[in-house]
Design a protein that fits this description.
Radius of gyration: 16 Å
Distance between the termini: 19 Å
Shape: globular
Bound molecules: 1-O-pyrophosphono-5-O-phosphono-alpha-D-ribofuranose, 7-hydroxy-pyrazolo[4,3-D]pyrimidine
Strand order of the largest sheet: 4-3-2-5-6-7
Oligomer: single chain
Number of strands: 9
Strand content: 25-35%
Largest sheet: 6 strands, mixed
Number of helices: 4
């Protein structure tokens, strides 16, 4: 089975992804300087982006990971009911925290993470999202760094899955609707 056969098109090829991540890395390095930020990866989808973004930073920084689950919903739409499955290892009190996400859709996942983190008194809290599906937003959330604004289509690859597959594709592709309808 070739996963590529289930794609309607490639939305963002690998070279565009990498070029944009390099730009984001340069901007984030300028903005944070010597403050030793903590980059928080939201598993599992954020893992490819986090690892490339980290390598694009020229400043000292730390990494940590958290896992979230959303209940209910469908195979292509999250329910918005969010729970922490695995919390950070690091205390974020007085730390400069940058949350790194693969995609913002309804905004519910990031809204939950931001509200939870703010109760822990970080020195600052910012969000970096590779993909922004603005049309689907239900909860307004401020994104500090955005890789790409994308249309309302179900995308896979570069960390993003359908039914836990496609995460390893090095580009962002649009899944054929007949695969999930
Ligand atoms: C995806 C994605 C975001 C969230 C965005 O995670 O990685 O965390 O959905 O959706 P929202 O803005 O509507 O809340 P998913 O629940 O698919 O988990 P995964 O990262 O493990 O694939
Ligand atoms: C979550 C998600 N996962 C994969 N592809 C998409 O388009 C998505 N939106 N929200």
């Amino acid at each position: 089975m070739r996963l590529e056969d289930n794609l309607a098109k490639i939305l963002i090829p690998s070279d565009r992804l990498q070029a944009r991540i390099y730009e984001l890395g340069a901007q984030i390095s300028l903005d944070y300087g010597d403050t030793r930020p903590l980059l928080v990866c939201v598993l599992k989808g954020g893992v490819m982006f986090l690892s490339d973004l980290s390598r694009a930073l020229s400043i000292p920084h730390e990494l940590d990971f958290m896992a979230i689950s959303s209940y209910g919903g469908t195979r292509t739409e999250s329910s918005g009911v969010v729970r922490i499955l695995m919390d950070l290892n690091t205390s974020i009190e007085n730390r400069h925290v940058l949350v790194v996400e693969d995609i913002v859709d309804t905004g519910r996942t990031l809204n939950y993470i931001a509200e939870t983190f703010l109760t822990r008194n970080p020195a600052s809290l910012k969000i970096c999202a590779l993909l922004n599906k603005r049309e689907r937003r239900e909860v307004e959330i401020k994104l500090d760094y955005i890789g790409f604004d994308i249309p309302n289509e179900f995308v896979v690859g570069y960390g993003l899955d359908f039914d836990e597959l496609y995460r390893n594709l090095p580009y962002i592709g649009v899944l054929k609707p007949e695969v999930y309808i």
